């Protein structure tokens, strides 16, 4: 298969810094798959995510979308190709939840897809369980409710590439599972989904492919069970763990040794 998104040897050195925060990282995101980026704090996950999203400039290397250099794609065209959920979604004005979700349809203004706006917004709000919040203003919401509204905006955009940076971080157990189910469903529908996760068990159970980062470098990339071994986790995270099959599902389960 040809990857929808591909990063080649990406290095990022912030202005004024002596050392890179991301070094020669490569990544492939395929249609029909959920690709999880995992690693400890400061590993470079969100930096690599920002580069493949087109929001962070690489000092060296290249990112391609369907074989085209990401830097050569107009912002409007890029917004019609991929939707991005960031860790932080600051809103300075008291927009309602409905208005925030409707913003996801902006790239399709004055196109035939504009006819889908109402249905796309309603579907996204139903998927994220925020219909009852429609008239509420963003500042009045809890952190988890804001996160779900931000995800609904991304889903309403209706692109075939979905990039989600820690979408489960502020959510309760039920809504974490809802988000992972949405990612799986979009992949089953043919979308290419890249998702940054801290929860290794979520990556093992929900991802088709995992890239493990540490110290700004890609340590390994492949099938989750092959990458997230007890030895690899202990080496990267500095925490001893046991990894064994879940007694019901058979999916590998990571349990820290305490």
Overview of the molecule:
It contains nine helices and twelve strands. The protein is of the alpha/beta class and 258 residues long. The strands form three sheets. It has a six-stranded mixed β-sheet, sandwiched between helices. Strands 2-1-4-5 form a four-stranded antiparallel β-sheet, covered by helices on one side. Strand 7, helix 6 (173-188) and strand 8 form a beta-alpha-beta unit. Helix 4 (117-127) runs antiparallel to helix 5. It is globular and about 50 Å long. 39% of the residues are buried.
Arrangement of strands in the largest sheet: 6-7-8-3-9-10
**Which topology does CATH recognise?**
Rossmann fold
The portion of residues assigned to helices is: 25-40%
Spans with pLDDT under 50 lasting ≥5 residues? none
Structural class: alpha/beta
Please give the largest β-sheet. 6 strands, mixed
Tell me the fraction of residues in β-strands, as a range.
25-35%
Q: What is the CA-based Rg, rounded? A: 18 Å
- Report the order of strands and helices: EEEHEEHEHHHEHEHEEHHEE
The number of helical runs is 9
- How many domains? The number is 1
What is shown here, in short?
The chain is an alpha/beta fold. Helices cover 32% and strands 25% of the residues. Helix 4 (117-127) packs antiparallel against helix 5 (143-156).
List keywords for this structure.
single chain; 258 residues; alpha/beta; Rossmann fold; six-stranded mixed β-sheet; four-stranded antiparallel β-sheet; 9 helices
Present the secondary structure layout.
Blueprint: E1 5-12, E2 22-29, E3 34-38, H1 45-53, E4 60-65, E5 68-69, H2 75-81, E6 82-85, H3 97-102, H4 117-127, H5 143-156, E7 161-165, H6 173-188, E8 192-196, H7 200-206, E9 209-214, E10 217-222, H8 224-227, H9 230-237, E11 241-245, E12 252-256
Parallel strand pairs: 3-8, 3-9, 6-7, 7-8
Antiparallel strand pairs: 1-2, 1-4, 4-5, 9-10, 11-12
Helix pairs in contact: 4-5
């Amino acid at each position: 298969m040809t990857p929808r998104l591909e990063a080649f040897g990406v290095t990022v050195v912030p202005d004024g810094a002596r050392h890179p925060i991301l070094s020669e990282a490569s990544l492939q995101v395929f249609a029909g798959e959920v690709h999880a980026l995992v690693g400890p704090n400061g590993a470079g996950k969100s930096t690599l995510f920002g580069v493949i999203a087109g929001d962070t400039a690489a000092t060296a290397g290249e990112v391609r979308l369907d074989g085209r250099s990401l830097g050569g794609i107009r912002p409007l065209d890029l917004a019609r190709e991929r939707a991005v959920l960031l860790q932080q979604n600051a809103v300075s004005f008291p927009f309602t939840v409905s208005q925030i979700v409707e913003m996801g349809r902006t790239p399709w203004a004055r196109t035939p897809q504009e006819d889908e706006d109402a249905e796309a917004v309603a579907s996204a709000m139903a998927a994220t369980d925020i219909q009852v919040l429609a008239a509420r203003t963003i500042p009045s919401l809890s952190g988890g409710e804001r996160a779900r509204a931000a995800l609904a905006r991304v889903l309403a955009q209706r692109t075939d590439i979905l990039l989600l940076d820690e979408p489960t971080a502020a959510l309760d157990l039920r809504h974490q599972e809802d988000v992972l189910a949405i990612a799986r469903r979009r992949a089953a529908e043919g979308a290419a989904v890249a998702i940054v996760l801290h929860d290794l068990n979520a990556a093992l159970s929900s991802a088709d492919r995992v890239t493990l980062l540490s110290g700004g470098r890609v340590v390994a990339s492949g099938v989750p069970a092959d990458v997230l071994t007890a030895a690899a986790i202990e080496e990267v995270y500095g925490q001893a763990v046991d990894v064994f099959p879940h007694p019901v599902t058979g999916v590998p389960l990571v349990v820290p040794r305490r």
